[in-house]
Design brief:
The protein is of the alpha+beta class and 476 residues long. It is 24% helix and 30% strand. It folds into 2 domains: 1-38 and 345-476, no CATH class; 90-291, no CATH class. The strands form 5 sheets. Strands 6, 7, 8, 9, 10 and 11 form a 6-stranded antiparallel beta sheet that branches. A hairpin with a 2-residue loop joins strand 21 and strand 22. Helix 1 packs across helix 8 (428-447), helix 4 runs parallel beside helix 7 and helix 7 (397-420) crosses helix 8. The two termini are 39 Å apart.
Length: 476
Amino acid sequence: MSRSWPVSMVLFLWLTIGFAVVHAVVTAWGVAVLQQAWPDSLQYEVLVLTEEGEAVIQGYTKGVGREFRKLDGTRIPDTLGLPRRFASGIDLMELDGRPPMTWDYRLVSYHDFQKPATFWYLISIPDRQNSAYFVGYDKMTHQLVGYLGIHGFSAQPPGIDESFEITPSGHTAFSGSVAAAQYPYAYSFAHEPDAENLEAQYSHLANVAPDAVWILSRGTVYEILLGQRAVRPLLQNQPELHNIAKEHVLKDGKSTLRLLSRTDTGISIIDPETGSLESIPFDAPRQPNGYESYYELKGGKRAFIHQFASSRRGRNQQHYKVSWLGADGQVEQQEELTLDRGTSFPGPYAGIALAVCVPAPIAALGTLLIAPADESGRVWKAHSYSARFAELASDLMAWIVGSLLVGLVSGWACLRRERDVFGRTGWAWPLLVGTCGWFGWIAYICLRPLPARLPSGQWMPSQPEPNRPLGTEIYA
């Protein structure tokens, strides 16, 4: 049966895509079964501190469950309610990585706790030197209310000099530069603090208003009261402050809030009511990348945990440096270690798994070319397209090489079949099949099955010649 070229292409693509979906589902299921059956597959490890300052590695291993061990590897039996004794740290800074500039990264919403309510959205504008300002919308009418910048309320968007200057970090554009009494939402809507979700959005604090927000900008800590639409500098001329974070503390039996900021030589505690500053010097220099957590331990001691993540060919690791400090701020002990995070299946085999599930050069090379341009799909260590391309190529090397080999073999087999069976020397089918790899080869043999063999052993041609007459023809 002879088909036109457009019809053949439509059928080829339909069969290729259909077989690719079936093959990917079946092989992915097989990989998942292998992943679950892998012996001693580690799910995660994380470093925590007890209230006394002891470092504990908490891990979860398939088939074993949750377990704890000391830094020297000694297992700790979970018979004394160990997790209830873990200390709560305060994340002070996030310096590594360049997160995507998508809206969910550049926008956070707040409630002003008024009736009728106004939803205030803090928006970061990367093209304007990472400036940010508040935009308010009426909850009922959805109409624009106005803007808030460093000089307060206005009907027009603030200029760069009138906006807050923030330092982007690894999770959102505002981590490290903004703190609030309420829990913000990184979505394009705010939640009404009614009886149903008020407790989830706001914990009652004795010393600050629920609508208060603090922003560190150009060495000044600004206090924004959304309900009053008022902005005032709480603390000025403090260039040594690198970030701002909040902490809930009990004071005279009441829950209160205080602000903390990391400096090059220690930590500063800010009273949000008076703006007073208390500096505590530490002999623990600020690290150039990663992020730090600050712990206040029993006996007046303190600790810093500096950590940063790395990934190599699908294997995720977390690197820690712990510094224990005495009451005088001097370092008493330091430890460094590396833990596995999210390695439920051996990382180097991730590319092989993709090569088995999707053995098609067009898929592997398409991913390699397109994925580095998408900053929202993955937290990249590199900033430029070429560097992200090299990073991804290293992670997917097994998939890329395997798919290219499958494509070459499929194209070569198609070329031989076209030449030896069908007597054609064109390159259209071999190139098409080689590009689609294993899936293209299956679609090709379905569309162009082998013809019958003649008694001589040769293949029947697609257009057989008519039989020649055996006698002598006499024309009258």
